[in-house]
Amino acid sequence: MENTQQSAGLASGAESAVTTKPESEGTGTTGAAEGLAGKVALVAGATRGAGRAMAVELGRAGATVYVTGRTTRQHTSEVGRTQETIEGTAELVSAAGAEAGTGGTGIAVPTDHLDPEQVRALVERIEREQGRLDILVNDIWGGDVHVEWDKKMWEHDLEKGLRILRLGMETHIVTSRFALPLLVRSPGGLVVEVTDGTEEYNQRYRKPFYYDLAKAAPLRMARALAEEVKEYDCTALCLTPGWLRSEAMLDTYFKVTEDDWMAGTKQNPHFAISETPTFVGRALVALATDPEVARWNGASLSSGGLAKEYGFTDVDGSAPDAWRYITEVDQESKEADVTGYR
User: Fold this and answer.
1) So what's the pLDDT on residue 340?
2) Which residues are CB-contacts of 340 (< 8 A; sequence separation ≥ 6)?
3) Which residues of 177-201 are buried (b: 16+ CB within 10 A; e: fewer)?
4) How confident is the model over 93-147, as pLDDT tens digits?
5) What is the pLDDT of residue 3?
6) What is the 3 state secondary structure string of the chain?
7) Of all residues in the chain, what percent carry a pLDDT higher than 70?
8) How much is the mean pLDDT over the chain?
9) Digit-coded pLDDT (tens) for 30-63
């Protein structure tokens, strides 16, 4: 699914993809019953897509959520989408907390995660205002606009390629450098690296060259950080959504809405395995509320795989297992059929 890989690549970045409103339909709150009241989270890269949805679901579960990104109501990042802003995300987080009666709150902090001083100031603010950090989600991306999907490594524009690596790798490193000293002060902290693809699936070449590196790096970062934080009774892992029905996926690539998304299967029948951003948000909450989350230290996890473990569903009540489907159906050039996969 090379073209679908490109589509799936829009799944996990702060500046690449989201959900437009809090979702409460369907089941999927397994694990959230214990709640996250009193917990403090930083979702780095929460403007849209998976990042926005994860922030919203953390707020629904009761957390105080700091949401960061580069697109605000006054400034638009290089991604070029004005529809989604970090202020909008913070409002959705607070609305979800109010709707659920958990008191979850969203706080927007404009941040360029390539600027160490901005990240330092962000973490200092969290420490000053909350005195703790319990959950760090590194969902920063925004590199899709620079990817030349059909170019060989030596044909790809070098400046764009290096920008992809900075956005997909350096941002995560800078954020962890400043956020982890605060997180490891309290036992039970959770670090989540977000990428596109499981470790098993990403053994394949995720062309082009720069994209492949950018999406492999969070997997390795999670494994390395797992070794470094475990002595503090903290956990680090990597999480991927499946084929995400992000804003860009809906309105730009398939030109559909969430209400009529199945019309997109006329362009690509495998789109039937896609999922809302809320699905990976529920996966994150299941992890964050699991008292035995340390069993996942260093692991590569997916929304579809975790749904089987924790029992949550997407907003329509299904549980799409996208990466298994992509491997067993699409990559094998079989006719699209999601039976048994969602």
Assistant:
1) 96
2) none
3) ebbbebbbebebbbbbbbbbbbbeb
4) 999 999 999 999 999 999 999 999 999 999 999 999 999 999 999 999 999 999 9
5) 42
6) CHHHHHHHCCCCCCCCCCCCCCCCCCCCCCCHHHCCCCCEEEEECCCCHHHHHHHHHHHHCCCEEEEEECCCCCCCCCCCCCCCCHHHHHHHHHHHHHHHCCCCEEEEEECCCCCHHHHHHHHHHHHHHHCCCCEEEECCCCCHHHCCCCCCCCCCCHHHHHHHHHHHHHHHHHHHHHHHHHHCCCCCCEEEEECCCCCCHHHCCCCCHHHHHHHHHHHHHHHHHHHHHHHHCCEEEEEECCCECCHHHHHHHCCCCCCCHHHHHHCCHHHHHCECHHHHHHHHHHHHCCCCHHHHCCCEEEHHHHHHHHCCCCCCCCCCCHHHHHHHHHCCCCCCCCCCCC
7) 90
8) 92
9) 444 469 999 999 999 999 999 999 999 999 999 9
